[in-house]
Write a structure and sequence with these properties.
855 residues; alpha/beta; Rossmann fold; Immunoglobulin-like; 6 domains; eight-stranded mixed β-sheet; 21 helices; 26% helix; 32% strand; elongated
Amino acid sequence: MLWLLVAAPIVAAPSILAMRAGRIRAGGLSALLRVGLFATLVLMIAELQVPVQSAARRMAVVVAVDQSSSIAPTQMQWMEGRLAAIRAAMNPHDQLAVIGFGRDAQLIKPLGDPRLPADLSLSADPSATDISGALTTAIGLFPPADEKHLILFSDGNETQGSARDELPALAADGVRVYSAAPPLPSSARVALTNFEAPSIVHAGVSFALRLDLDSEATSPVDAQVKLLSDGNAVGGQQITLRTGLNRFELPYRIEKPGAYLLKAEVSVPPPLVSVNASAETALSVSAPPRVLVIAAVAPESLIKALQLRGYNVAQTGPHNLPSDPRAYLAYQAVVLANVTADALGENAQYALNRYVADYGGGLIVTGDTLRDPKFRGSELEKTLPINFVPQPPPPTREPIAVYLLIDRSNSMSYNSRYPAVRDYERIRYAKQAAIALLNQLDDTDYAGVIAFDSEPYVLGHLRPVGEDREELVNRVSRLEPGGGTDFKEALEIAEREILASGIAVREVILLTDGDTNRQYHDHDQLMADYAKEQIPVSTIRIGPDLENLRLLQDFARNTGGIFYRVEDITKLPQLLVNLTHEAENFKRHEHTRVTVESQSAILNGIDPAKIPPMDFYDQTDPKEGAEVPLEVTLGTNSAPLLATWQYELGRSAVFTGDPDSLGSLAWIRWDHYAEFWSQLVCWVARPGDAGPFTLLVVNSPDGSLTIEAEKADTAPVTNLFARITGPARAVDVALTQVGDSLYRGNSAPLPRGKYDVVLMVKAGDTERVLLERPIAVAGRGAADAAELRLRPPNYGLLRALAENTGGRFDTPVAEDLRPVGATVIGYRGVNGTLLPIAIVLMLGEVFIRRRLLGD
C-alpha cells in the first residue's frame, strides 16, 4: 500500500496551480496539507504498526532432545525423565514444544499445553548430530510475545553443522538456551570405529589389517576379534582394550589371488556393551611378485624359500642378459648370486643400474659376486649400498668324520607314502641324499659309507673324502635294494673306525625304513658304548610306518644325536646336509655372532636373539647413507651381513653370506629363513605390478572408485581406459593424464560386490589389454560412522550456547523454568491516532481553499 505515496504530486496539483497563479503562500500551505492528508490515509490503509516494548505475558519452552546414535539407552532414559519433570513443573498457562534431532529435526510435540504428553518414539534420523539444525527449528516455534526458553539435552558432539553459528540468531530473537548433558552410560561401551586393509597386496605376502576401537571402560578389558573372509571365519585374536582409542595391527596373509571382502567382528564380555561390533573392508590380492634370479648355479635354498612364500621365481644364467632396462620391468626384483664380472658384462650392469634408478626396481646381490674384485668401480657397485673390498682368505676348520649307514633292504624299493607301490622312490632319494652329503664335505673331511640289509656292505671305509670321492659316489649310485634289515653290525663297524681315526668332530647317520630283525635290547650295550665314547648317532626313519620308532628315538637321544621321521622324502638330501653341519660345529676358537644394528621392516616378526650365526661371509665397506640392519661379529671385528639403501627411485641390498654354502646351513635350518628372504625381497621390490604399468584402485566411502595407472616411463599414452565389469554391468572409465606418468579416473558409486578392472588402450575398434585386477567394493559406508566414535561429552559447546544467550548450563529443572522478567517487543496499530490527524488535516485544507483561495 505504501507505493500509493508516489501519487502525492497528483493530489497536490490544484495547490501547485494556485501557486503558479501568484497565490504562493496559500497554495504552498494547501499543498502541504493535501499531501499530509493523503499520506495519513495511505498509512491507515497500510495498517501501520509501531514496536512497543513490554513484559512477556507467559513463557514458551522448547525442549530439544538428542536422538542420535551416540546417545546410549540409559542416557535417553535420563532425558525422558527430565522432560517429564519439566512438564510437571510448568505452569499450565505456559506453552511447551518438544523436538527430537539427529541428522534432521523432528517435531514431536507442537507448542501448546505442557500437560499434554510427548511421544519420544517419534525419532529423527540418528545417523548424525546436527545441533545447529535443532536450534534453527526451535527458533521458528517461539511466539514473539512470550519469554523464550530453549532446553537442550545433548552430549554436544555435533557431526554436521556448527551450533555456534546460530548464536547471533538466538540473541536477536531473545532465546535463552538452558543446556545439559546426560550422565555417562551405566554400562561402558566399545565401538569398532575403523577397519582397513591395504588397497592391494601380493598373494602369499604378509600384510597388516588395521583396527581402531574405542573403549569407555575405566580399566583394561579383554576382547575377542574375529576375522571373516567372504563370510567364512578365517581367524581371530584376543586383544586388550585400554580406555580411549586403541589401534591394532593384525598380521594376515592370503595365498590365492583374487578379490576379498574382509569383515572384523568384536565381542566383549558383559557388562560391556558393543555399540558397533563389526566393520567391513575390501581387499585385492594380486599374483605373487615376480623375481628374477641371475646365477651361474641356482641358489636352491634361496629359490625354495621364496617359492615357499608364494613368489613367482624365474632363473637365468648371467650370459646374454638384456641391455635394455625396460626388459627387467617384467619383474619386481632381481637377485644376483655367485655371478662374476666377466660373466655379467658392462651392458647388463648398466641396464640393472637404470632398472633400479629410473624405474624403481629392486636388486639384491649375494654370494661370491661380492668377492669379485673386478666389480670395483663398476655400474653394479654404483647401484649397491657397499663398496667392494679385497677378501681375506677363507677361515679354516678342523676336519669332521661322518659315517653314513644306508638301508638297502627290499622294502627300500617301495614308495615312501604308498607302501603298495613299488617305484624305488625310497632308495632313489636315499642315494641322492648320500651323494649330496658327500659333495658338501671338504677334501680334508673323513667319510665312510655302509649299505646294509641283513648283512653290512662297506662301500667305503672312513678316510679323507679327497682320496676317493668320485669312486664313493659311483658306488652309492649303483645301490639296489634287496634282503632283510639288520643294522647292528654296521653300527659296530662305524664305531670302531671312528674311534681309530681319532677325529674329535664325528657323527654317525643311520637311515632306515623298516623294522630290524633283532630285538630292542640287543642294542643296549652298543647304545651305551656310543654314549660313553660321545659319538652322536642321528637316526632317520623314512615313511609313515611306526615300526622301530622307539629304538631309533632312544639311540638318537642317548647318544646326543637327532631323530627324524621323514614322510616327505624329497627333503631327505637337504636333511642329511643339515645333520652334517650339526655335527661339525666348525670347532673354531672364536664364533661369529649376528646382531641387529638398525630397525628395518625386513626383520619384522623376527626375534633378534634367535638369528643364527653366519660362519662364512664376504667383507664389504658400507657407503655413506647405507643402512646396516644386520652385522656379523667375529672376535673384535665386525662387518655388514645385510646392507640396504634407497638408490634414486629404487632400492638395493647385499647379503654378504652365500645362501647355499656349508657356512650358511644354520640359516637354512632357521625357522625364519623363508620369512627373512621373502621380507628382504618385498622390501627392495618395485612397488606395483610387473610390467610397464602399475594399477591402483582406491575405494571411496560412497562406493565409488578412484583408478590410477602409473607408467614406468614418461612417454605419453592416449585413449587409456579402465573397464569395470561385474554382475550385469560393464563400465568404461576414461583415464586422464594428471602427471608426467600418472593417469587418473573416477567411477560412479558401485554396489557392494566383486568386480574386475581391466586397464586397456583403445584404438578404433581394437582394444589392447595392459593389466587386469580383481577388486572388491564394500559399498557405501555406514551413514552413522562418525556417531559411533565414543567421545566424551562436549561440555564446552553446551556451556558456550548457554552463557552466550543468557541461559544456564546443567541446572535443575526449576532453574530452567524460572522466569527472568524478559521484555518482548510487540507491535501496535496507529490508525486510532492517525484518524483525528487526518480529520484535522482535511478541515485545515478545506479552510485554506475557501478562505484564502476562494474556492
